[in-house]
Amino acid sequence: MPLDWTHAVRTDLGRVRETNEDAWLADPRIGAFGVADGMGGHAAGEVAAGIAADTLLETLRRLPPDARAEAARQALVEGITRANERILAEAEREPGRAGMGTTVTVLVLLAEGRWALGHVGDSRAYLLRNGTLRRLTEDHTWVQGLVEKGRLSDEQARLHPRSSLLTRALGTEARVSVDIQDGELAPGDRFLLCSDGLTGMVPETRLSEIAREEDDVESLSERLLSAALEAGGTDNVTVLVVSVQGDQ
Ligand code: CA
Q1: Distance between Cα 150 and ligand 1 center (Å)
Q2: How far apart (Å, rounded) are the C-alpha atoms in residues 20 and 25?
């Protein structure tokens, strides 16, 4: 079953922020795609997110073309661990960058017909299959803890004033715990990777409607970005859509 994929990315400052601290990575040749949402003053968030994106690309480019999911899972842990170390080292080297950090959510599509995902923070990955939008990642946020305890609904968490308070990120601790998963890839699958500048602005029901209305990766990413901006665009917005094609 030969699989192929196309992708589109949109990233935007939003309507309030003065710098874009989101970063993204895409190398369709090796099936690697990701988003990183940086934090920290004096443009340090941009630096942290950039280190994460570069380090992940560098690590994943060393995977052989026929890599299996297990090797991809290991490479994702290794890449994210190394990115964390580099961010901490850079923050120590340059005092203006102390405390910088980033989220990272990275997808690898494999020729064997599987996908693997590595994740830390509150950027998200969704799988759109047969008209259904499924969230693959868990937010590492304080409000998500309350959702799990049944004290907040997803929608209340989204609108909570402290919704972006992270419990896990790169650049905050010497050892970072990475969420890793993999699954089967099917023709027609679409993946959405995004920063919280999208999901904080637009409810999932709306994301799902837009995804059903737009087939094309370019128009889907454009529509999602517009929806975030129309809803206020109070944060940087990054949207990356990957569409998988192939005969079954
Ligand atoms: Ca953000």
Answers
A1: 25
A2: 15
The label of the residue with tokens 């129309």 reads 230
Residue percentage of the chain with pLDDT more than 90: 94
Residues near 147 by beta carbon (within 8 Å), at least 6 away in sequence = 153, 154, 157
Q: What is the pLDDT of residue 82?
A: 98
Low-confidence ranges of the chain (pLDDT < 70): 1, 247-248
Phi, psi of 21 (to 5 degrees): -95, 10
Tell me, in angstroms, the distance from the centre of ligand 1 to residue 236's CA: 6
Nearest to 233 by CA among 204, 197, 207: 197
pLDDT in tens, 64-108: 999 999 999 999 999 999 999 999 999 999 988 999 999 999 999
Number of Cβ atoms within 10 Å of the Cβ of 99: 13
**Cα-to-centroid distance, 13 and ligand 1 (Å):** 10
Rounded to the nearest angstrom, the distance between the alpha carbon of 93 and the centre of ligand 1 is 25
Tokens of 129: 């299959």
